[in-house]
Amino acid sequence: MIPTLYSDRLLLRPFTLSDSPTVEKLAGDPLIAETTLHIPHPYPKGGADAWIESHEAQAEANKSFTFAIVIKETDQLIGAMAMAIGSDGKAELAYWIGVPYWGHGYATEAANLLLHFGFKEKHVNKIWAAAFTRNPASTKVMEKIGMTYEGTFRQHVMKNGKYEDLSYCAILKDDYFKRLFS
To answer: Could you tell me the CA-to-CA distances from 111 to 95, 114, 129, 143, 161 in Å, in that order?
Structure first.
C-alpha cells in the first residue's frame, strides 16, 4: 500500500486514474521528456493509465513507491516522486515536476518527505539519485536534501539517440539522521 505523506505545502499520495489527464499534460511537455530518462515525447495517449495502474503492485512487492505530488492548498497535482527499493538496502529516488511549478522548492520539499519515508519506514541504508549533467537544477535538489555528490558517469545512458552523462548523489541513513538532529 502506498501511504500519504504530508509536508507544510504538499502532500504525496497514491496516483488515481482521475490523475491521468493531468499527468499526460504535465509529462507531455517536451522539457519534462528532455530532463528525464524514461519519459518519452510525445507522451503517449493512455500512457498515464498504464503507468498509474502499475503502482500498487510495485508497492505491494515493496519494490517501488510512486507518489503524486499535490499542493495541499489547491489540491493541484504538480508532479511525481518515486523511490525504487533494491534488495541490497539501497533505494533510488526519482522525480519530475511540471514546468509551470519549477522554481518553487516543491521538488526539494517532496524529496525530503521521501528521504524520511525511505530511512524511517522502509529502513534502507542508502538513497541515491542521478540526473543528466545538463540538468543542474535536479542536482541542486539532491544537494539541498543533504545528498553528497558521488561522481559522474560519462556517456552512461542513451536518450534520443545521444549518449548522456549522469551525475550521481547519495545520502546514507546515518548521515541523514545526524543532519536531522543537528
So the answer is: 8, 5, 11, 11, 30
